Amino acid sequence: MLMELIYDTYTVFWREMILLRKKFRSFFAGSMVSPLLYLLSFGWGLGRNIQIDGTSYLNFVVPGIVALSAMNGSYSAAGTSLSVSRLYHKTLEEFLTAPISVLSLVLGNVSSGCFRGLFSSSLIILFSYFFGANLHLSGWFFVSLLLTCFLFAALGLVAAMVVNSHEGMSRFSTFVILPMTFLCGTFFKVENYPAAVATLVKILPLTHCSISLRAIAMRAEFPLVSLLILAAYAAVLFALGMWVTARVE
Amino acid sequence: MKRQGVVTVQRQGVFYLIEISGLCKQYKEVRAVDNLNLTVKAGEIFGLLGPNGAGKTTVIRILTTLARPTGGKVLINGRKISRGNAVIKREIGVVSQRENLDIKLTARENMELHGRLFKLPPGERRARTKELLDFVNLSERAATAVEHFSGGMKRRLMIARALMHEPRLLFLDEPTVGLDPQVRRKIWDLIRSLNNRGITVLLTTHYIEEAELLCHRVGIMNRGRLIALGTPTELKQKVGKVVVEIPNNRVTGYNDETKYLVFENRGEALRYASGLQDNLVIRESNLEDVFVELTGHKVGD
Ligand SMILES: Nc1ncnc2c1ncn2[C@@H]1O[C@H](COP(=O)(O)OP(=O)(O)O)[C@@H](O)[C@H]1O
Ligand SMILES: [Mg+2]
Q1: Which of A115, A131, B8, B42 has the fewest CB atoms in 10 Å of its CB?
Q2: What is the pTM of this model?
């Protein structure tokens, strides 16, 4: 059972990696553009002389940008790849008619989305050093990053399985992903909002990705609650992913 | 992984590989499949013939777990099908109507992916890939990305891929649609040779010829319903053996439609024809005539 699950998950992952290898250059270049722009504009342009919580704005904003690119990277990796293969090339049929479990199919897709999200967010961490950021990278930082990538890859999978067109897919990211980009404490503290708004924003998962990564990177208090919320999101979205995949036509 | 413990259902001396009873599929407005009852015997080439929109693809999609029925029951090899039933899935090969290859992957990589999905060991995977690409004449293009393939090449690769895990039941949804006549004949030969190796084939088509020349038994579908079932010969005998076709009736002058008359034998047909002044064609009846008789319009309409 377990061996079969691992083998089948790897098969799904393997195909994604072959595809990634074939378009690696454009993937690599593509995943650098927006993080670099964020680092340039917010790290250097806006935040050069700003201090926040007794540290430079750069140190404050980099964990937020890491969370943001983890979200974008894994959501679009899983979402785009699956929606194209379901709606356009129909290659999802090959997986649905194969003798593999829904669990392996979902796990394989989520883990390859995760992998790409981790890859692009690692690039940012690397770059941020050249920009002069000083982050504390511990095991818990990595755990938060992994949870972030996992939950947004699962969200991408759910979106890809329920939309009925490419327009549907981009509508989903306009209404779900884009608002989080600006609202969820990437560039400023959520506490700056009026209390009511802050409460609302704290429902959104990206908020807790930024809070966790930032708290760990800045050696602040351990973000236990946020990590638990992330884990809950990851579990619920993964289960939802299984449910929609078992029913998708 | 070798298949194990597969029992074939036997009733009255016939092996039924597929048993469909009361099958329905309702989409929002359309009833794509309407109370379908059908059995397919082990070893035969069974054809579902019908115009576009008849529900053929929907039947195949249900049989391969890509769509879920809204009613009825399907057994393959005596077992209920479901997306999670790996035992049945190992038994069947699917060639969809629409191309569903990974176009960025090469022919060999597509085959390898399929081999991995069906858990063939690496050695067997390589051997089967080589053998099958030979079989469908694609060996020289093994390392080419599928996006550079012609329609016929893609179709052949899809068939090769479906055979990778040695299925005993093959679903072919419109296997020759959009292909030119020579390629179509090659694919027919391919299907016959697979059947000679013992593979049961369920195919769909809207080509009269394909059903007539290739299939042992044919089910005619229209608007989700099965309206006739039998061997091509049996079906044709139901309407009569000889057809007199009078194109563009010049006597009446107004009628643009071809008139068909069906007779039991040549003598009767000739007797009728000899009394006419019009251009006419006397020919044996075909499955098109059966369809026209049953529905009042042609398969192509
Ligand atoms: N996913 C779907 N949603 C809504 N209607 C569908 C869907 N798939 C097929 N149909 C409808 O079901 C009917 C049968 O279609 P199909 O099985 O593709 O026929 P065929 O393969 O014989 O051409 C058609 O009227 C078609 O429009
Ligand atoms: Mg069809």
Answers
A1: B8
A2: 0.90
